[in-house]
């Protein structure tokens, strides 16, 4: 299960989405739209990579979405996002290579951590700054 700040399925019933046909299919179901999940993943870590966006070329579905990411080292990857997690499916944007047998990662953090030392450094520094800010808040 991916870490996200919110779960789109936890919307209260009176949000006005009932009229919107995109949301009708979700009423009373557990189905998650992977595109929404993919957008949340991108928003979470975009600050720590050179470029990252949900693929507009590869098909998104309820059970799969594809994310293009370029690390700060300028390496490009296409990631597949499913209920099993995230994995690299190609070494370029908007591609999939069926011969590639890469492991699934439970979170985008662990996947990027394994691909990009620069991501690890930027993410670690951001975490440190956040902790220092929290420490200052509690001291005042």
Automatic annotation (TrEMBL):
Pfam families: GSKIP_dom. InterPro entries: GSKIP, GSKIP_dom, GSKIP_dom_sf. GO terms for cellular component: cytoplasm. Residues 34-134 form the GSKIP domain. It comes from the Eukaryota. Residues 1-23 are annotated as: Disordered. One of its GO terms (molecular function) is kinase regulator activity. One of its GO terms (biological process) is regulation of canonical Wnt signaling pathway. Belongs to the GSKIP family. This is GSK3-beta interaction protein. It comes from Mesitornis unicolor. The lineage of its organism: Eukaryota, Metazoa, Chordata, Craniata, Vertebrata.
């Amino acid at each position: 299960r991916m870490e996200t700040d919110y779960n789109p399925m936890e919307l209260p019933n009176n949000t006005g989405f009932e009229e919107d046909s995109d949301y009708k299919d979700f009423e009373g179901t557990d189905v998650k739209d992977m595109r929404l999940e993919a957008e949340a993943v991108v928003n979470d870590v975009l600050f720590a990579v050179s470029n990252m966006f949900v693929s507009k070329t590869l098909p998104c579905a309820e059970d799969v979405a594809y994310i293009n990411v370029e690390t700060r080292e300028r390496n490009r990857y296409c990631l597949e996002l499913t209920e099993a997690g995230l994995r690299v499916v190609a070494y370029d944007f908007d591609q999939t290579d069926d011969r590639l047998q890469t492991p699934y990662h439970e979170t985008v953090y662990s996947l990027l951590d394994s691909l990009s030392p620069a991501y690890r450094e930027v993410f670690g520094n951001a975490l440190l700054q956040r902790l220092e800010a929290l420490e200052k808040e509690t001291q005042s």
